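Exercise (ungraded).
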Amino acid sequence: LRFIHQVLTIVWKDVVAELRTKEMLSSMFVFALLVLFIFNFAFDLRVANVVALAPGVLWVTFAFAGMLGLNRSFILEKDQGCLDGLLLCPVDRSAIYFGKMLGNVLFMAVVEAIVVPVFVVLFNVPFRWELVVVILLGDLGFAGVGTLFSAMAVNTRAREVMLPVLLFPIVVPAMIFAVKLTGAILDGHPLLRVAGWLRWLVGFDIIFLVVSYMTFDYVVEE
Amino acid sequence: VNGTGEGKLRRFDVGDALSLVAAVMVIVGLFMALVYAPDAINLPAGPVRLTQHVFYFHVASAWVGFFAFFVTLVGSVMYLWKGERRWDILALSSVEIGVAFIAMVLVTGPLWARPTWGIWWTWEPKLTTAAILELIYVAYLMLRAMTEDPERRARFAAVLGIVGFIDVPIVFGAVRWWGATSTSAHPIVVRGGGFDIGPKMLTALLFCIAAFTVLYFALLVWRMRLERLRDGIRQLKQTWRGR
């Protein structure tokens, strides 16, 4: 319980810091909208079957916007010397990992909460509540290993450039599962029909949360 | 014959020995793949049957590539556990060799696929996995190049060496599920413990795999020595500056 309290404190710290500037959320949101617009023209989405393209468009948008958020996640900590402060705190390193990770999921979810309705309107696809489950699970997989890599990328020379190079190949499976599930949901299948995919996605989340949790110590160690 | 006999009586050297064996085996392997192994009579004559011979080096390269990344996984785990530089050297050396061999897989595959399938590439589980595998380990090398502090570089690389390897079977499973409706176009040679090829072909394949494995170890020994020499030079430079 103490652990959960520590994790939530770190999440809260990130939320407060973000609310002061609103830098990250606004840039992620505007960026996500721009990606949607660009896709509209790049693919010329006024084709007969928009639903066929929609899941891919949606997840590429999330992945790009999420990448922005993940990049900022540790750059702020690093530049302001806050990471050293966090590491000096009498908390377990894993609390820092889970705090930052949940913060990233939260920011992605907030942006998606605005982007999804826009997406539904712009691309004229049906909205279904099952989407929320899939999106949150996808975010968890993305941010789970993304937080680990973000902490690494911030300590390299290229910083912002390094993160996508590291992260995208690793999260390919999560993207595949999420796109498949989103497609099935938009097609009107109940979630139980695609339980196999859901299990894979949950499996991915668990595996990489555990591996990231176990290796995070080595990444932030000074 | 230079009088001192130094050149002649040099101590037995693992690197030299492995290189020599590898060189002989690869040349013999080339012969086995191109001459000894018969043409695949079940394939139409012409380019399809000819290019099938790339199979022996293709499979052997794939095996070495996967094995190399497995060695990297071991080196990475051991480095994080023990913190000794030699495990980092092992992981790094193995990645470089693995990237080269998987690159070979990605080149030899399409060479055969083009005449046989009519296309260079398809998003089939084995092909996709190999491509993503290559990208992960190229990222590994980039990560190393971009991290300044040597101790930190080793730690980051080890983390990626572990995460990357865990990802590989998941990618394979994901792509297989993704294309579950269409049957895979990639040939399956090993099935249920048996081999789907003739005895001569099998001999050639196993020989090529053995040859490439020896080649891997030869390259590994030399690459690790090179890295140790680099460490030595770095240390010498530091002591020189310290004076």
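Further reading is listed at the end of the chapter. For now, observe: The CA atoms of residues 76 and 158 of chain B lie 4 Å apart. Helices of chain B lie at 14-36, 47-51, 55-82, 85-117, 125-146, 150-178, 199-242.
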